[in-house]
Write a structure and sequence with these properties.
The complex is a heterodimer of chains A (474) and B (587). With 474 residues, chain A is mainly β. Chain A contains five helices and 34 strands. By secondary structure, chain B is mainly α. The two termini of chain B are 58 Å apart. Classes of the chains: A mainly beta (474), B mainly alpha (587). Chains A and B meet through loops of A and α12 of B.
Chain lengths: 474, 587
Amino acid sequence: MNGGDEGAESAAQASPPQPLEWKFSQVFGERTAGEEVQEVDIISAIEFDKTGDHLATGDRGGRVVLFERTDTKDHGGSRRDLERMDYSTSRHPEFRYKTEFQSHEPEFDYLKSLEIEEKINKIRWCQTANGALFLLSTNDKTIKFWKVQEKKVKKIADMNVDPSKAVGNGNVASSSNNVSPKPYLANGGSPSKEVYAHAHDYHINSISNNSDGETFISADDLRINLWNLEISNQSFNIVDVKPANMEDLTEVITSAEFHPTHCNMLAYSSSKGSIRLIDLRQSALCDSHAILFEEQEAPGSRSFFTEIIASISDIKFAKDGRHILSRDYMTLKLWDINMDSGPVATFQVHEYLRPKLCDLYENDSIFDKFECCLSGDGLRVATGSYSNLFRVFGCAPGSTEATTLEASKNPMRRQVQTPSRPSRSLSSITRVVRRVDTNGNSFDFTTKLLHLAWHPTENSIACAAANSLYMYYA
Amino acid sequence: MAMVDEPLYPIAVLIDELKNDDIQLRLNSIRRLSTIARALGEERTRKELIPFLSENNDDDDEVLLAMAEELGVFIPYVGGVEHAHVLLPPLETLCTVEETCVRDKAVESLCRIGSQMRESDLVDWYIPLVKRLAAGEWFTARVSACGLFHIAYPSAPDILKTELRSIYTQLCQDDMPMVRRSAASNLGKFAATVEPAHLKTDIMSIFEDLTQDDQDSVRLLAVEGCAALGKLLEPQDCVAHILPVIVNFSQDKSWRVRYMVANQLYELCEAVGPEPTRMDLVPAYVRLLRDNEAEVRIAAAGKVTKFCRILNPELAIQHILPCVKELSSDSSQHVRSALASVIMGMAPVLGKDATIEQLLPIFLSLLKDEFPDVRLNIISKLDQVNQVIGIDLLSQSLLPAIVELAEDRHWRVRLAIIEYIPLLASQLGVGFFDDKLGALCMQWLQDKVYSIRDAAANNLKRLAEEFGPEWAMQHIIPQVLEMINNPHYLYRMTILRAISLLAPVMGSEITCSRLLPVVINASKDRVPNIKFNVAKVLQSLIPIVDQSMVEKTIRPCLVELTEDPDVDVRFFATQAIQSIDHVMMSS
C-alpha cells in the first residue's frame, strides 16, 4: 500500500487500461500429436520468484523443475557467456530450462497404513542470497527446503552441446537431453537443506512465506502451523479448527497465505466460501479470527450444490496487500481487506456450467481446485478453466476486460470446436466427459487448467496444461 | 606424487584432499589445517595456504563451518599478530555465505582475530572489511557486518568513527528484516564501545527507530537492547529514554513483544534502578500478569518471585499478591504450573505473617490443582516454604496431594513424585515419614511400569542413605525381603535390584546376615531371568562382603549356576566367577 501504487490506481480510475492483446511466448514439454500424457509428468504447481527471474514447476512425480529468465541483461558475471549468445531483443520475459531435482518420493506411513503421494502441492520461493536460490516444496505431508546453487564443476564436461538448442524448448519431463553446457551445475542431487515433517495429520494444501524472511506457515484441512525456516523439528500451531467431535465438522481450511508486507497478518479460506484474516499479534492461538469476509447468499437460491461451489479453492494477496483474490468454483472474487461486507468485484468464470452441476458432481469435476493469480500492478486477475482455457479479467474500476485464452500456441483461438487430440490418449483417465453447451461449444472436463501464475512485474502468464508449461505475454 | 618436491608434499596432500569428492576427507583435511600450516612454515602459510583457502569457498557448509572455526585460532601459524590481517580475506568470504551457522562462526572468528590485532592494522585492514561487508550486495554480508562494529569502532580515528556510526544507522534501516534483526541484536555490544556523547544522540536515535520497526521480530530484539543500553546510560538518562520504551513495549500490540518484556523484566528493572521500578514498572508488570494472552502470563508468572525480590514487601503484598491470587485459578494450566514452580520463593520475601495469611491459601489450592504438573511443581520447591511456615502446617494438606500423585494414572507423574520422596523425607523427618509414606514406597515396588519399579528401588537406597542403616534395617529391609516370595517373577526381579542397590549402603554385616541368604535362595528360582539376575547381583556383592564369605557362599552358588540348562544363566554365572578370580588375583 505504498504511495506509488495508489498513484497508479488513481490514474487507472481515470481511464481503465486497454484490454491486453495476449501472444504466445514459449512452451515447455509440448506433446506431439497422439503422445500419451504420463500421469507423473502432469504439472501440479507453478510459482514465479519475487524478481520474476525464475520460475519453478512441480509435478505429480515429485519433481521440481526450475527455469531462468534469459532476456534480462543483469545476470552477473557467472552468466556472462549467456550474453554472448545471440538472443532476440524482445522485451517480454523468456525463460530457459535451468535444472530439475526430485523433491519428494512416494512414501508409506506404516503407522496409519497410508500411502503418501509424491505429488508437489505447492512451491514457494524464499529470499535469494549470494545467487543461490531457495525454495520450499511440499507434498501432502512433508515440506522441504531446497537450496539450488551453481557450483564450479571440477571437471569440465566433455560433451559439446550446442547451447542454442538447449534454450527455449526443453522438455520438462526429461533431463538427459538438456544438460547445461556451462561449467557449473545445480546441486539438485544433494539432499534438501531442511525437512519439515510429521506436523500435519491432514493433507497440506498451502505453504506461505512471511515477510520477515525467517518464518513460514503450512496449512492442512484443519490446522495452520508456523515454522522457522532454520528449525525443522518444531512448529507452532496457530490455527486449529478441528472440532472436539469430528462429526461436528462443517468447514475445512482450503488455502492460506501471509500478507505480503505485514508480518503479523495472514488470511485463510474455507470450504464454506469465507475468508478469515487473522492478526498473529493478538494471540498465540488464532482460532478466533480478526475479520471475516463472506458473501451473503441470495435468499431462495440455495440448492444441493450451493455449498460445494462456494468452496474457495485458492486465495492470493495482491502485491499492495490491500486486496485478496479468491477463486471458488463459479467465480473469481476480489476483496478489499478494509471492507468485510462483500467482495468489491465478482467475475463470472463458470456461469455457463450452472445447468451442468449435476454432471460435474457425478464425475467429481465440481471438486476441481482452480488456482487464481493477480498481475503485479493489481489491475488484472486470471484463473483457469476447462478445455485448457484460462480467463483474464480487468479489475480496475470501469474495466470490462474479459479475455478467454487457450493454452496452446494459438491462445486467441479461444473455444475449441473439435477435439484437439484423439480421445484414446485419455485412456488412463476413466471418466471422459465431453459435452457441447447451448452455444455449440464443447467443454472437455478432463483437460483442465488448474495452475497458473502471473509474472510479478510484467504482463506474462505461465500456465500448466497437463504436462506442458505454456507462457504468454502482452 | 613422487615428482613433487618434499616440502611441497603436505600442501599437495591438502589440496588433493580438499578437491576430493568425499566430504569426510575434505573435512579431515580442514581439521588438520594447523598441522599443515606448521609443516609449511609461517611464510608459506601466508603466501600459499591462506590464498588457496580464500578461493576454496564453494564447498559444503559443513566444510566451510570447520574452516571458519579453524581460521579463528590461526594467528600463531601465520607469524603472529603483525600478520593477522592475512586471515581476513578468507573469513570475509565466509561472512557472505548463505548458511547462518557458517556466517556466525566466521563473525566469531573475525571478532577473535580483531580483538588481538594491532590498532594500526585494524584501521588499515579491519575497518575497510567491515565497510565492505556493510555495503555488500546480498543481505548475508550486511547481516555479518553488524556483528563486527564493536571490534572495529574503538580503534578508529574520529572521522572513521563518525562514518561507522552512520553506516550502522543505515543497517538499522535496511530493507531486509534479517539485517535489521542483526543490527538490533548487536546494538548493545556496539553501544558499549561508543563514547557517551554519541551514545545519547546517535545510538539512542537508532534504538528509537528499532523500537518502532513494523516487523515484530525486530522489535522483539530491541527489547533485549533496552537492558543492555540501560546499563550504559546514566540513571537519569535511562529513566528519560529507556523507561518509556519499556512501558510502551509492555503494551505492544504483538503478544510476542509483550512476552519478551515479561521474560526480560527482571533485567530491565536492574537497568532502570529500584525507584523507577516501583513507580513505573510495577503497573507494567501487573498488566503483563493480567495479559489476555496465556503465553505472556506464563512468562510473567515465572518471574514473580524474582520481581518481588527487588520490591519491598508492602508493594509486593499490595500490587503483586492480588495478581498471584488470580493466576492461581487461571484458566490455563501452564500459567498455574509456571506460578507453582516459583511461588514458594515468595515466602521469604513476604515474611511469615503474610505468607500464612495470603500465600498459604494460594499454595494449598495449587496443591489441589487438577493438573499434576502444578502439584508437582509445588512439591519440588517444598524446602523453601518449609523454612517460613514450618512443616506442621504443611503436612496436613501435603499428604493427600502426595498420595494422589503417587497413584496418578500417568506413570510419568508417579515417577516425578518418587524422585521427590527423598527430599520430602529429609524435610518432613523420620516420624512423619514412617507413618504416612513408608507404605507408598513399598507399593511402588509392585507398580505395573518397569520405570516406576526401578525408580522405587533407587528411592529405597536414597532413603537408606538419608536415615541410616539402622532405620533401614527396621523399616525397609523386612518388607523388601518379604516380597521376594511374590508369585510374579518381574516383582521378584525388582527385589533383587533393590537388594543390589541397598547392599552398599547397609554394609558388610547386614548384607551377609540378611541380604545374601535371600539372594542365594533365589538362585533356586524356576525362572531363568531370576537366576541370571542372581548371578549379576552376586557379582555386585563381591566387593562388599568378606573374602571368606565369597568363597564359602557365593562361589558354590555360582558354580551351581554355571551348570544351569539356560545359556544366559551360565554366561552371567561364569562372568561373576571370573570377577571373583580377578579380585583374588589382585589382592
